[in-house]
Amino acid sequence: MPRRSGSILLLCAVLAIGAVGVALVLQHFFGMEPCAWCTFQRLVFLLVAALAFAGWLLAGRSCMALLASSVLAGVAALGGVWAALHQQFVAAQSLSCAFTFADRALMKLRLDESLPWLFEATASCSEANVPLLGLPFALWSAALFLLLGALAARAAHAALPARALPAQRAA
């Protein structure tokens, strides 16, 4: 079922890139400034998208590569769940999220300097976690990461080689 896994992974990539697109529209057109954890989650969404897209490209070529990219996309999505929940329950409770793991990772990778329109944090975590349709933005992000993780797990399951049924083994 490599085609099915590939389709699921393509959906993962589209959803993850769409999440970053929505975040950029909200930032640049509606003034919703991101914090370090917001921009770190953008990085994780892009990582999930890259891994899922790689799996989609490999869907017809190698079952093991498809399986590996599905599993890695799922693990990255779980990392995104952690980042979103950390933002919601830890970082948003402090006045500053400067020099946290997210801030240090983005500075170390120099993403805030090389792509400031995408990765520059311009708000504190307590300011950035505003509600969207009554739910804090970080919880929307966590929900999407959970969905991406579930889709990646489904793609990995579909990529597993079919097992012979007991009746087929006896024959």
Overview of the molecule:
The protein has 171 residues and is mostly helical. It is built from 9 helices and 2 strands, in the order αααααααββαα. The chain has helices at 2-30, 36-58, 63-89, 101-108, 111-114, 116-119, 125-128, 137-159, 166-170; strands at 131-132, 135-136. Strands 1-2 form a two-stranded antiparallel sheet. Helix 2 packs across helix 4 (101-108). The longest helix has 29 residues, at 2-30. The mean pLDDT is 87.
**Separation of termini?**
24 Å
Helix content: over 70%
Largest sheet: 2 strands, antiparallel
Shape: elongated
List the helices and strands and how they pair.
Blueprint: H1 2-30, H2 36-58, H3 63-89, H4 101-108, H5 111-114, H6 116-119, H7 125-128, E1 131-132, E2 135-136, H8 137-159, H9 166-170
Antiparallel strand pairs: 1-2
Helix pairs in contact: 1-2, 1-8, 2-3, 2-4, 2-8, 3-8
Key terms:
171 residues; mainly alpha; two-stranded antiparallel ribbon; 9 helices
Quick recap:
The protein has 171 residues and is mainly alpha-helical. The protein has helices at 2-30, 36-58, 63-89, 101-108, 111-114, 116-119, 125-128, 137-159, 166-170; strands at residues 131-132, 135-136.
